[in-house]
Structure formats: structure tokens, C-alpha cells
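Input (structure):
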């Protein structure tokens, strides 16, 4: 199979969920198929080396940042400006690439690049990967935004997004969701589009199981440069939840990891019991030292790669209902779910004081990660889905008489 993968960012370094997913699934597919990546340039040397498994990495001009006047003008354009990635020459790059190379399937990552479907040959089966339901994500993000021009801009763009996302899904031959919950919504929008679930996952060989740390340490993981929901969750964990936990477990501590921490997050390091480590080269030592991984999200959509990372290292995950949304993990057995600040603090304190329970949940979570969420398992499912798409395309192709 010759696969074209179009991504709205360079999937390296592996410092947030979207990059991690795209990189690992491509890596495993490239062991058996020809994979070409189309993504914004330039491509640094370390990224080129890391992506050497690709048959080619084709850059397109990275979009320039837009001043607010441009954002306002795009509100009246055909695409939802807040999610769509456009740049001069992007469509031309896609057309030139599909003329120069023959592909069996085009896989478009994220709704922001879905407009590329119009630049691809009609005969080329195209698949949209919905890393989250963009409409749902935006609606939830609005709930965290203060009133002002930015919120008004996103609110107006959401009107367009609500029409655009279902209509765009219907223009593809196939669609991939990250959870059965999201897949059900996509099927409701577009019952004629082949839809499957390929969950997010983890490299269970790289993230090995580690015995319980026996420390009163909790860990928060999140990429702050892309998602305000992570900022909200980290602040909530440090300012509202941790003080309540420390009333029950006085030496409880919280470490916060993540790329692009803003001032609101770095300032949390001044609070008692809080360490803000920011971006680190390897999260494994921090996971090994933590007894509980916490994720009190109030916004966002899709499933979280960091949850599977913690599970693979045999760490119990304490999550809000929104953070656990879409996960096929048994509450109380493979994950702990707690709504609200008081309930979250109660569960965090209980876990810190109960090592046998942490070990039981951690081991069950590790077994689930290996069985269902290893990238090799998920790549096999992706390969099978593309195969059914190709079989369907072949069945629809007109017969040509010979002789």
C-alpha cells in the first residue's frame, strides 16, 4: 500500500498527543508499506532523521501567523478560520505530489486540513482522522474563555464550524475516530462514510511497568502551548485540589510537566508542595516517582495519550469524567474517575494512603494498555481499515473489457 499522510504540523518532537499518535502509527505502517508525509516545513535535521522510515517527507510552506484584522476577515470566508490551516501553495503542493507519485490512500490528519480533499484526485480514496470532534471541543473551550473579543471571535466561528464539520466528514470516503463515542457521532453525521475507531495509544516497550513508588507524589501531564484546557486543569489541581489533599495527607506533593507552560502555570511553583518542571526530555523518571497521575480536565475532547502513557507504566490514573471520556477502561478497576473538586481531592488522598489499591489498579491498567492500546495493535487495525477501503474502491471501479 502507498499511503499519503497529510499533517497540520511536523510530528516531531514527540511532545504532545497529536504528534505522538501520527509518528508511531506511521512508523509501524512504514515497516510494511510506503508512507509519504506532507507537513509544514522546514524539516530540521533531527526531525528528518527521526522520520527516516518515511519514503519521503514533503514540506509545504508553513502558514504565517495572522494579525487580528486577518482573523476578522476570515470570519466571512468559506472555512472556519479558527480550526482551518491554510497557507500559500498548500493545495498546489498536494496536487503536485499526487501527480508525481501514485498513492492508494490519502490520510488527512485533523479537520484543519480537511479542505485538502478538494486538491486530491477524485479517484484517490481519502480518509479523515478526527483526533477529536472539533465542534464539541470548541464549545467546551468557550466555557473557559473570559468575555471579550477573542471569545466573540470563536463564538461567531463556531456557527460556521457546526455546519462545516458534518458536511466535511461526508465528503470523505472514510473517517477514523479515536473513540467509539466519537465514531457514533460521526456515523450520525455521515452514515454513508466508512467509519472506524482507532484509539490513541502508547509504546508499551518504551514505557515499561514500574513498581509502586510509595511516595505522596502526584503528577500532572499536559501540553500547554496548544490547549487552554490543560492550563485550567493544572491551575485547578494546584490551587483548589492539592490544598484539600494536603489536609488529609500533609506531605502530598504535585509535579506539573508540559510544553509551553504560561505564566499562570509557572507561578504555581511558588505554592506549597508544587513543582513546575515544564518540558522535560523524558517523562519516565517523573512517572516512576509518582504514585498517582491526575487529570482534572473541564474542557477538551477526544482521548488523551498521556492516560495510556501512565497506564503503560502501571500508574493509577485519577481523572475527571471529561478526561476519561471515550476510554474503554473500567472505573474503579483500571482507572479512577471523580467529578468535582471535593470528590477529586477525596479520591487523590485515598489513593495516596492505599498502596495495595494503587498497585491493583496500576497492574490492571498496564494489562489493558498492552492488550488494547499498544501502537502495534492499533497500526494493525489501521492497516485493516485501509484494506477494506481499498477493497470497496476496487469493487466500485468500472470494469474495462480487454481484447
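Output (sequence):
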Amino acid at each position: 500500500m502507498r499511503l499519503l499522510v497529510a499533517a497540520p504540523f511536523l510530528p516531531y518532537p514527540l511532545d504532545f498527543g497529536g504528534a505522538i499518535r501520527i509518528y508511531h502509527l506511521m512508523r509501524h505502517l512504514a515497516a510494511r508499506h510506503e508512507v509519504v508525509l506532507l507537513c509544514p516545513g522546514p524539516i530540521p535535521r533531527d526531525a528528518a532523521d527521526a522520520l527516516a522510515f518515511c519514503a519521503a517527507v514533503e514540506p509545504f510552506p508553513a502558514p504565517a501567523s495572522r494579525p487580528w484584522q486577518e482573523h476578522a476577515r476570515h470570519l466571512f470566508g468559506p472555512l472556519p478560520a479558527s480550526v482551518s490551516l491554510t497557507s500559500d501553495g498548500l493545495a498546489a503542493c498536494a496536487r503536485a505530489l499526487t501527480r508525481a507519485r501514485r498513492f492508494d490512500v490519502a490520510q488527512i490528519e485533523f479537520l484543519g486540513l480537511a479542505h485538502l480533499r478538494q486538491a486530491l484526485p477524485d479517484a484517490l480514496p481519502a480518509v479523515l482522522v478526527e483526533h477529536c470532534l472539533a465542534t464539541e471541543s470548541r464549545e467546551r473551550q468557550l466555557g473557559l474563555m473570559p468575555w471579550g473579543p477573542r471569545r466573540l471571535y470563536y463564538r461567531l466561528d463556531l456557527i460556521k464550524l457546526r455546519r462545516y464539520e458534518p458536511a466535511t466528514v461526508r465528503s470523505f470516503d472514510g473517517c477514523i475516530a479515536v473513540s467509539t463515542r466519537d465514531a457514533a457521532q460521526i456515523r450520525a453525521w455521515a452514515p454513508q462514510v466508512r467509519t472506524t475507531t482507532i484509539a490513541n495509544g502508547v509504546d508499551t516497550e518504551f514505557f515499561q511497568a514500574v513498581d509502586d513508588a510509595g511516595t505522596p507524589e502526584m503528577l500532572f501531564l499536559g501540553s500547554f502551548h496548544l490547549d487552554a484546557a490543560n492550563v485550567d486543569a493544572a491551575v485547578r489541581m494546584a490551587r483548589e485540589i492539592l490544598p484539600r489533599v494536603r489536609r488529609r495527607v500533609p506531605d502530598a506533593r504535585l509535579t506539573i510537566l508540559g510544553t509551553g507552560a504560561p505564566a499562570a502555570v509557572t507561578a504555581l511553583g511558588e505554592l506549597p508542595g508544587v513543582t513546575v518542571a515544564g518540558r522535560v526530555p523524558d517523562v519516565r523518571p517523573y512517572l516512576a516517582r509518582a504514585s498517582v497521575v491526575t487529570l482534572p480536565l473541564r474542557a477538551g475532547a477526544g482521548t488523551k495519550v498521556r492516560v495510556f502513557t501512565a497506564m503503560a507504566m502501571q500508574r493509577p490514573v485519577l481523572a475527571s469524567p471529561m478526561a476519561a471520556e471515550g476510554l474503554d477502561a473500567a472505573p474503579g478497576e483500571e482507572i479512577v474517575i471523580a467529578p468535582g473538586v471535593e470528590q477529586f481531592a477525596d479520591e487523590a488522598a485515598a489513593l495516596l494512603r492505599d498502596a495495595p489499591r494503587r498497585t491493583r489498579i496500576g497492574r490492571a491498567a498496564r494489562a489493558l494498555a498492552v492488550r488494547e492500546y499498544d501502537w502495534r495493535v492499533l497500526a494493525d487495525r489501521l492497516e485493516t481499515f485501509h484494506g477494506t477501503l481499498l477493497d470497496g474502491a476496487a469493487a466500485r471501479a468500472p470494469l474495462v473489457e480487454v481484447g
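Notes: The CA atoms of residues 210 and 313 lie 6 Å apart. The chain has two domains: 2-66+74-201+375-389, 217-372.
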